[in-house]
Design goal:
Elements (H helix, E strand, L loop, with lengths): L11 H4 L16 H26 L4 E5 L3 E2 L12 H14 L5 E7 L2 E6 L1 H14 L6 E6 L5 H15 L4 H13 L6 H8 L5 H17 L11 H13 L2 H13 L4 H12 L16 E4 L2 E6 L2 E5 L3 H12 L3
Parallel strand pairs: 2-4, 3-5
Antiparallel strand pairs: 1-5, 3-4, 6-7, 7-8
């Protein structure tokens, strides 16, 4: 019978590894709290980016833009050239306190922005930068808007200027006429409704009444924003009734060359009253002539008026008129 081999215990030295056990590399899963925190941070950043993008698209985000990137003639301006006193006051204000109100612009591409509103602020900053060379005047605070149509851009310009400074009736009629002429609106009537839809019917009627004045004299008037409502309506009425009056009035303005707004308004007042150079001689106000002491004669359109005659002189004149020719 074969003798069994006796099994000896395993040698632990052979079983024990010489170094630490190698396991498949695997990153420990992050704690749930860390994952939650990172997700919340990512969501917050995405929300912030969305809010900023929305604010910029809607024109609620103020940006600093270089002045040389602003295209000031992107739209026809409703405000005429600012008076020197007004511009000087604005320049002094920006010099002392900086720009307080942003302008409105529309992106044109290639780093350019079309000016919607704020022409006076851009002009004032440009003047200050040319004068001082200071970097703080080299850029302008702006709201970047992206109107869907040209009409929306014009409405934004008009509304901003109406709120800030108020347009004259001449300026309102001028932008209505030009917006229709450039095809922004199909007609002057549509332009009036579109640009001044929030105005009362009476106000729109007055704006419409100023259009003949703009059409007739826009090229020769130097200070039209100083024309009062009453004078403008009277001039428009005369221009509508007498088409030739526009030519005579233009000649009078060019010939007189008024030195300032007050002189121009004074000339227009005389003309519309029939006392100026531009009025048809047959319509000129008649002037009385003193033909002898105390006796005045006025002649107009073949009629003669004599004042100051006593009873005897009147009788003698009657007999003379009744006598043989």
């Amino acid at each position: 019978m074969a003798k069994r081999k006796r099994l000896t215990p395993a040698q632990t030295a052979f079983l024990a590894p010489e170094g630490p056990l190698e396991t498949k590399s695997m990153a420990a899963p992050p704690p749930i709290a860390q994952v939650s925190e990172e997700s919340a941070l990512t969501a917050a950043l995405e929300d912030l980016a969305g809010v900023l993008s929305s604010a910029r698209q809607e024109g609620r985000f103020i940006e600093d833009l270089p002045l040389d990137q602003i295209v000031t003639d992107h739209l026809m301006r409703d405000r005429l050239v600012a008076e020197d006193d007004e511009m000087a006051a604005l320049v002094d204000s920006i010099r002392a306190r900086g720009q307080q109100m942003p302008i409105e612009v529309s992106p044109l591409g290639e780093g350019q922005y079309g000016l919607i509103s704020g022409w006076r602020r851009v002009a004032a900053l440009g003047r200050l930068h040319a004068e001082t060379g200071a970097d703080r005047f080299a850029s302008v605070k702006a709201l970047v808007r992206d109107p869907e149509t040209s009409a929306e851009a014009y409405v934004a310009m008009v509304e901003e200027n109406e709120i800030r400074v108020g347009l004259s009736f001449y300026e309102r009629a001028r932008i209505v006429m030009r917006a229709a002429h450039e095809g922004v609106y199909s007609s002057q009537t549509e332009a009036l409704k579109g640009l001044f839809g929030a105005a009362s019917p009476a106000k729109r009627s007055k704006i419409k009444s100023f259009i003949p004045l703009v059409e007739g004299l826009d090229r020769v008037l130097k200070h039209p924003s100083q024309i009062s409502e009453r004078l403008g309506l009277a001039l428009s009425k005369r221009l509508s009734e007498d088409p030739a009056f526009a030519g005579r009035l233009r000649d009078a303005l060019v010939g007189a060359a008024p030195k300032d707004g007050a002189a121009e308004v004074a000339l227009l007042t005389l003309e519309v009253a029939g006392k100026g150079r531009g009025v048809n001689p047959s319509d000129r106000a008649a002037e009385a002539e003193e033909i002898r002491a105390g006796v005045w004669l006025t002649e107009k359109r073949g009629s003669v008026v004599i004042k100051g005659l006593d009873a005897a002189a009147v009788a003698a004149l009657r007999d003379w008129l009744a006598g043989p020719c």
